[in-house]
Amino acid sequence: VQVIMAESSRDRARNTWGQKCQYGFLLRGMMFTPDGDLYLPMATRKPSGNVYRYYVVNKNQNMGAGSVTFCNLPAGEIEKAVTDEVLKILRSGEMVHQCWTQITEMNPDLSEPEAMVLCFRNTATIWNKLATQAKKDIVRTLIRRITITPDGLDLQWRFDAWGALVGMPPRNTVGNELLELEAA
């Protein structure tokens, strides 16, 4: 006890936070119950060395188990479900259309169907190679909030921020170049 108390409270807090953060949680601070209770990321390391990551409702953590009807969620499964939704958006035709100029600059001989196939085939591979922080940045750019409901996930997208992700033009300008060509 004396050794612990000899350490400053700031150092103890920093060490505790470092231990909690050592397991990357993709959705930290983004998940809520319908009542607005925050899901907290938690991890447990068993004597066998296995690490179990999960999200716990804040009230269950602070007021005791059973104080909220929502249960703990396994981090891997919930993060995979959100990642699948993000990849669906990144693979969408609109996203590919927004990147089309950059794709043709890199390879002018590539046809649009070939580009679509490459984008669909490579999105998951590229995602899996990204660092955890890059994944977090992309998810936070695309999603404002995740609400866990009895029916599943309710994702609140940041449609206004999508342009920052791919450098797309402002809203309602896609297709205007065709109208300008017709008018000329």
Helix and strand topology:
Elements: H1 2-6, H2 9-21, E1 31-32, E2 39-45, E3 51-57, H3 58-63, E4 73-74, H4 75-90, H5 93-106, H6 112-129, H7 132-142, E5 143-149, E6 152-157, H8 162-166, H9 176-183
Parallel strand pairs: 1-5
Antiparallel strand pairs: 2-3, 3-4, 5-6
Describe the overall structure.
It is a single chain. The chain has 184 residues and is of the alpha+beta class. The protein contains nine helices and six strands. It has helices at residues 2-6, 9-21, 58-63, 75-90, 93-106, 112-129, 132-142, 162-166, 176-183, and strands spanning 31-32, 39-45, 51-57, 73-74, 143-149, 152-157. A three-stranded mixed β-sheet has the order 1-5-6. The longest helix is centred in the middle third of the chain and has 18 residues, at 112-129. The model is unreliable at 167-184 (pLDDT under 50).
Explain briefly what this protein structure is.
The protein is α+β, with helices and mostly antiparallel strands and 184 residues long. 52% of the residues lie in helices and 17% in strands.
Q: Looking at the chains present, what oligomeric state does this protein adopt?
A: single chain
Helical coverage, percent range:
40-55%
The strand order across the widest sheet is 1-5-6
Using only C-alpha atoms, the radius of gyration works out to 22 Å
Terminal-residue CA separation: 81 Å
Q: Which structural category fits the helices and strands?
A: alpha+beta
| Uncertain segments | 167-184
The profile of the biggest β sheet is:
3 strands, mixed
Q: What percent strand?
A: 15-25%
CA-based shape: elongated
Strands, total number: 6
Mean pLDDT: 74
Spell the H/E element sequence: HHEEEHEHHHHEEHH
- Helix segment count? 9
